């Protein structure tokens, strides 16, 4: 299948570089370009592209404002391409929350080769599932009798589409949620800002994981992007361990590495695999299930990319698949103190 792409950027040089990089792949056809959202709106109607690449800073209308209109009126896969994405700022996260499938930074060297990462992201975006803003059901409320099991460890893995999914799930957690470790595939510059964003909008304390940090209920630990795998070290109080090993399944941090470390803890545990391209996390989730963990996977209908959850389900690692809006309450039920469950 040929992927039809519309390139939107106010710089003619950037439009040409992005188009040249994308045209180097025989499965991508650049059907047009636009210098601002007004031109882009007309081009979308005329050319019906499969994927849009979109800059943030443009004349006539901010890229984020245009993205919001697209996701409300004509949902389609969008990959953000901007100098602002390099710093992992709130602008990038806002774009992903609004509905952009992914984001890449404009590289320092102005050559088509510098945009190679964009090719894979555009092809993934073409296979993604996007919805109009406001179409998703609200997350189910936490169980009324919920009380955290202080021994329980929750591990969540995600990739493409994971920003929205994690905001939905963690946004439904109470302040005394289970000790939670998260691996989300993200560049190194993004995860600190992402953790800070989650910390602002969620009841639990959310922070980027640091070496030796003890796992505590009411806290969420996000794997640092690009530099290390996040593992959970065993002990009377388990702790975060950051290991600078080689990428696994093409990723560092890897969901598989995190899940496999949790599987070795010998304590109550739950594993959850969310939207994402590829199969990272499938074997690790199976290891958790075989070690006695309860395991959940995001279903196909609510996954932006039904790759990682599908691979884990087909391998036997997923005990139960649920839509995104039901996952938060289901996770809390599995992680609750057994005494609280018996009372309920």
Question: What's the order of the H and E elements?
Answer: EHEHEHEHEHEHEHEEEEHEHEHEHH
Strand order of the largest sheet: 8-9-7-6-12-13-14
How many structural domains does the protein architecture include?
2
Structural class: alpha/beta
Determine the CATH topology of the largest domain: Rossmann fold
Uncertain regions: pLDDT < 50 for 5+ in a row?
none
Main sheet specs = 7 strands, parallel
Whole-number average pLDDT?
A: 91
CATH superfamily of the largest domain: Methylesterase CheB, C-terminal domain
Question: Roughly how many Å apart are the termini?
Answer: 52 Å
Radius of gyration: 20 Å
How much helix, percentage-wise, in residues? 25-40%
Proportion of beta-strand residues = 15-25%
């Amino acid at each position: 299948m040929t992927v039809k792409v519309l390139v939107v950027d106010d710089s003619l040089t950037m439009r040409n570089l992005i188009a040249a990089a994308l045209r180097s792949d025989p499965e991508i056809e650049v059907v047009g370009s636009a210098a601002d959202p007004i031109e882009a709106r007309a081009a979308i109607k005329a050319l019906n592209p499969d994927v849009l690449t979109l800059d943030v800073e443009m004349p006539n209308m901010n890229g984020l404002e245009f993205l919001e209109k697209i996701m409300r009126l004509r949902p389609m896969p969008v990959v953000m391409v901007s100098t602002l994405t390099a710093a992992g700022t709130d602008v990038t996260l806002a774009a992903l929350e609004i509905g952009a499938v992914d984001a890449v930074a404009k590289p320092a060297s102005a050559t088509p080769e510098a945009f190679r990462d964009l090719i894979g992201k555009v092809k993934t975006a073409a296979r993604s599932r996007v919805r109009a803003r406001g179409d998703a059901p609200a997350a189910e409320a936490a169980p009324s009798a919920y009380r955290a099991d202080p021994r329980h460890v929750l591990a969540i893995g995600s990739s493409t589409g994971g920003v929205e999914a994690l905001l939905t799930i963690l946004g439904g957690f109470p302040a005394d949620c289970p000790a939670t470790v998260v691996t989300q595939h993200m560049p190194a510059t993004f995860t600190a800002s992402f953790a800070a964003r989650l910390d602002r909008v969620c009841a639990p304390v959310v922070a980027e994981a640091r070496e030796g940090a003890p796992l505590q209920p009411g806290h969420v630990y996000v794997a640092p992007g690009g530099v290390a795998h996040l593992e959970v070290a065993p002990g009377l109080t388990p702790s975060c361990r950051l290991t600078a090993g080689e990428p696994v399944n093409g990723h560092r941090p890897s969901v598989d590495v995190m899940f496999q470390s949790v599987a070795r803890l010998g304590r109550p545990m739950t594993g959850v695999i969310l939207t994402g391209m590829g199969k990272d996390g499938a074997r690790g989730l199976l290891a958790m299930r075989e070690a006695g963990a309860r395991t959940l996977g995001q279903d196909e209908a609510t996954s932006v990319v039904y790759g990682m959850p599908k691979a884990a389900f087909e391998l036997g690692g997923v005990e139960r698949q649920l839509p995104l809006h039901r996952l938060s309450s289901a996770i809390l039920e599995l992680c609750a103190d057994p005494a609280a469950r018996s009372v309920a």
